[in-house]
Structures are given as structure tokens and as C-alpha cells.
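Deliverable D2.4 — example input (C-alpha cells):
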């Protein structure tokens, strides 16, 4: 998905171009030169490793990093004992940060053995000044730090790392630009994420995302459609449209368009079989969207609709801008219009001021909506967010309530998933089963996984599968 021009044709005796993405291709050519020098000196191809923490947005960003690294000549590896290692970080909850610090300690050992090894950190954590200070102070062996807004500049920054021994730090507060047409290398040949927008304007009071990902910016529909068409031509059958709040897509474009209208256009793309999207904010989910989903042959029967909490008082303190009743009404409407849809959600337990009674309201929502799956998180205090300054809930209480919520989610989800036992449904085969090489793993439209006998030739195909045994969150089945 990039301009098909030859890096070797770029004249490096000239000044780098000012405009993007040409400027980055110029720097990729320079990086490639450095990689060739390395190869001549050491007699081997240098290896690079990209480790991703966090959400689908980060996974997509990592594919962009891999696209550039491979184009400049690195061999990719999953082994962090490599010549270039980059951590694409997450900071939505503190445990994500702690994992990064732990892993950085391990990298230091590898760098001691291989002094030419370069270590880089990018992503959401790097947008936090406290994290940057900590890295400068305690992890000075890191060679490169950059944030979420200038990821498109990766090639240029990589060149600087080759030329300079001090830590290279380039972090922007925000941006309103979107650079198109850079290389991307997909993890899966048959499915792909596509960014349709960046950033978030919602400022839920617990959430750090608006501070680290900046203001909402939508990509032009024609750029999105062009990208999907190219992906389909390259063998992709399933796409996931990505944004922190896809339901407000297009509002700020020069020619505004709704998310539902965008979906209608994506649906027209011939050869595309499945459309998914993530994430929907309940306050912005329109009737038009429900209608488009209902009529669509390609939009998957799955909607991720984060509720976060069941108590209207807590929702208000979270700045979610809907009440318990409004959410329940919306969920009921969706189930009424699209009966075979799977609804999933995110829940936070232990938000400041949450009482046992508030948690009962969350449990009530789980029982009423009957989620097919739910991600349950313990509230994590994020410096700089409004909720960090509110009175925190004692740990013991949070732990007790978390377990209670989790048990409810598991009971309900098991029953929901089991509804389809005995049915034949289409599964997109994604991979060979991790534990049993005679099985493959496929994903149903409703996002449930099914394992069944098959081999690698099925990967990327959509095949009908009979759902025999339900094992909680997944099925065992056979191809029909
Ligand atoms: N603590 C716990 N969970 C959080 N999330 C976002 N911020 C926090 C936080 N401070 C959860 C929300 C969101 C998901 C991606 O992460 O549930 O939907
Ligand atoms: Fe965070 Fe709320 Fe934006 Fe989601 S909608 S990224 S929870 S601020």
C-alpha cells in the first residue's frame, strides 16, 4: 500500500524533499544505504523486532513500522535479541506501562552483548511527560523516543539514530495532519485494520487517550476507499475500520459525511466479504447506522458498545453523556432490529466514588443486555485526567466487586455463546490452532471462534462450519 517507486532511484546527493510522503521515502533510501553498509561490514542481514502493546490502533501502527523496516532492508523477527527493537507502547492502564519498563530492563542485557543494537519506544506512553522523564533518567540506553503524532516520520528518525549517539527524542503535543501513502506490511494476508480517524474528543474523565492521541481527525473517504480497494486487490476479504469513536467519523471533514454513509460506500467494494469496526460510543450511535447494519450483507453481526458502568451517577461522573436507561434502550433497539447480533462491551470497576450499589447497577445492565463477551477492567488512576483527583475506592472493595462483575459476565456470555449450538455458520479461517496442528481456528461473523479439523490451505477462506460443542467462549466443530 505505498507508492511503488524504487528507493534505489532516489538521488541522495540532493537535499531531502520538503513535502510528505516523498521526504520519508528519501530517508528510507538513506536508511537502506546504512543497512547495506552494515551488511558489508558484518556479513549478515540486520534483524528488527516490533513489539506491540495495547489496542488495534497500535497493532495497525506497528504494521506501518514493519512496512518501513522491511523496505529499508531489515529482516523481521519476533526475538527481541535483535539489532533494532521498537516497543509500540500503550498507557491506557498503568499495568501496560509497568510491562514496558520490565521489558526494557531485559533489552538492556541484549544491548550489552550487541553494542550496535538500537532500542526505540513509540506510542501512547511516550506522549506522557512523566514517562519520558523516567526513561531519560532510568533507561538512558534507549536510542529513540517518538510519540503518536509523528509516527509517519519514523524513517527520518531512524536515520538520525544512525547518525547520532545521544537519545533522539521527538514528541509532538498534537497534530492536524494525516500523511497518506507510506508503506505498510500486514500481519495477516486476508484481513486488515484500516484507520478511518485518529484521536478522541470525548474526554471521559478516567481516560488518558484524548491527551495522548490528540483531537479527532477523520481521513478523507476517498483515501479510505482507495486503501480498501487496494487491500482487496491484494487478497484481503475482511476489514476492520478503526477509530476511538467511529460513530463521530466525518463530522469535521470539509464535506461532512456520516459513518453510516461511509459504511454504505465500503459495502459496494467488490470482492470485500466482511466489514467490522471498532469502537462505537453509545452516545453517537445513530438509527441510520443500525439501519445500514441491518440491511448489510457484509457488516459483521457484532457490535462492541462500551458501557463502562451501569449507574447513571457514575456514568455522569465518567462524563459518558448517557444514562443507564438510555444505554439499555439503545441495546434493546439494536437487538430488536438485528436479532442475531453479538453485543460486547468494556466495563470499569472501581471508578472513584463507586459504591456496592453502583456495582449492582452494572450487574443489572449485564443481565439485561446479555453481552456475548465483555472486557472488565479495574479502574487505573491516570495522572492528568479529572478522575485522578477524585476520591479513590479502597482496593479491597474494588477487588471484591471486580470478581463479582467478572463472574456475572462469564455466566451470561457462556449462555449467549451457547445459543448457536448445532447451527452451521460461516467462519473465516485465520490460523492453524495453537495447541493442535490438525485443527484450524476460524472466526464467525459474530466474532466467536471455532476450532475444527483442517489444514493451512484453508487460511483466508470463508467456509461453513457446524458448531458442535460450546466450550464457554468458543466452539469445536467440523466443516460441512
Ligand atoms: N482505567 C481502567 N480502564 C480504562 N479504560 C480506559 N481508561 C481506563 C482507566 N483509566 C478502558 C475503558 C475503555 C478501554 C479501551 O479501556 O473501558 O473502553
Ligand atoms: Fe477514552 Fe472515552 Fe475517548 Fe474512549 S471515548 S478513547 S474511553 S475518552
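Example output (designed residues):
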Amino acid at each position: 500500500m505505498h507508492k511503488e517507486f524504487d528507493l534505489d532511484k532516489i538521488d541522495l546527493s540532493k537535499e531531502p524533499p520538503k513535502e510528505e510522503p516523498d521526504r520519508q521515502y528519501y530517508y528510507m533510501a538513506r536508511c537502506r544505504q546504512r543497512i547495506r553498509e552494515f551488511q558489508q561490514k558484518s556479513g549478515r542481514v540486520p534483524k528488527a523486532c516490533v513489539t506491540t502493546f495495547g489496542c488495534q490502533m497500535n497493532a495497525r501502527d506497528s504494521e506501518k513500522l514493519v512496512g518501513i523496516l522491511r523496505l529499508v532492508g531489515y529482516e523481521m523477527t519476533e526475538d527481541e535479541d535483535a539489532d533494532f527493537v521498537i516497543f509500540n507502547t500503550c498507557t491506557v492502564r498503568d499495568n501496560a506501562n509497568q510491562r514496558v519498563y520490565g521489558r526494557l530492563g531485559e533489552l538492556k542485557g541484549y544491548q550489552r552483548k550487541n553494542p550496535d543494537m538500537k532500542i526505540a519506544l513509540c506510542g501512547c506512553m511516550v506522549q506522557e511527560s512523566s514517562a519520558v522523564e523516567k526513561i531519560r533518567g532510568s533507561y538512558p540506553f534507549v536510542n529513540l523516543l517518538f510519540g503518536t503524532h509523528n509516527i509517519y516520520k519514523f524513517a527520518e528518525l531512524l536515520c538520525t539514530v544512525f547518525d547520532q549517539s545521544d537519545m533522539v527524542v521527538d514528541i509532538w503535543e498534537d497534530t492536524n495532519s494525516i500523511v497518506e501513502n507510506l508503506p505498510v506490511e500486514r500481519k495477516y494476508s486476508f484481513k486488515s485494520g484500516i484507520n478511518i480517524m485518529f484521536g478522541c474528543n470525548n474526554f471521559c474523565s478516567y481516560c488518558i487517550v484524548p491527551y495522548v492521541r490528540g483531537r479527532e481527525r477523520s481521513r478523507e473517504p476517498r483515501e479510505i476507499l482507495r486503501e480498501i480497494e487496494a487491500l482487496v486487490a491484494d487478497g484481503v476479504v475482511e476489514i476492520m475500520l478503526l477509530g476511538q469513536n467511529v460513530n463521530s467519523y466525518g463530522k469535521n471533514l470539509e464535506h461532512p459525511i456520516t459513518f453510516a454513509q461511509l459504511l454504505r460506500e465500503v459495502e459496494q467494494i467488490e470482492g470485500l466479504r466482511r466489514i467490522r469496526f471498532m469502537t462505537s460510543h453509545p452516545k453517537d450511535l445513530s438509527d441510520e447506522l443500525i439501519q445500514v447494519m441491518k440491511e448489510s450483507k457484509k457488516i459483521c453481526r457484532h457490535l462492541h458498545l462500551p458501557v463502562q458502568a451501569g449507574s447513571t451517577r457514575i456514568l455522569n461522573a465518567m462524563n459518558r453523556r448517557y444514562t443507564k436507561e438510555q444505554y439499555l434502550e439503545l441495546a434493546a433497539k439494536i437487538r430488536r432490529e438485528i436479532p442475531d447480533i453479538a453485543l460486547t462491551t468494556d466495563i470499569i470497576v472501581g471508578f472513584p466514588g463507586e459504591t456496592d450499589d453502583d456495582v449492582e447497577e452494572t450487574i443489572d445492565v449485564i443481565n439485561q443486555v446479555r453481552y456475548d463477551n465483555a472486557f472488565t477492567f479495574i479502574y487505573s488512576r491516570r495522572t492528568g485526567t479529572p478522575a485522578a483527583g477524585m476520591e479513590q475506592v479502597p482496593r479491597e472493595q474494588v477487588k471484591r466487586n471486580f470478581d463479582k462483575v467478572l463472574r456475572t459476565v462469564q455466566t451470561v456470555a457462556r449462555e449467549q455463546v451457547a445459543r448457536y449450538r448445532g447451527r452451521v455458520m460461516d467462519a473465516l479461517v485465520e490460523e492453524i490452532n495453537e495447541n493442535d496442528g490438525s485443527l484450524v481456528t476460524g472466526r464467525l461473523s459474530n466474532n466467536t471462534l471455532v476450532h475444527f479439523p483442517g489444514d493451512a490451505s484453508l487460511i483466508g477462506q470463508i467456509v461453513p462450519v457446524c458448531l458442535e460443542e460450546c466450550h464457554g467462549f468458543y466452539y469445536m466443530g467440523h466443516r460441512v
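The pocket of iron/sulfur cluster (ligand 2) is lined by residues 200, 202-204, 207, 209-210, 244-245, 281 (CB under 6 Å).
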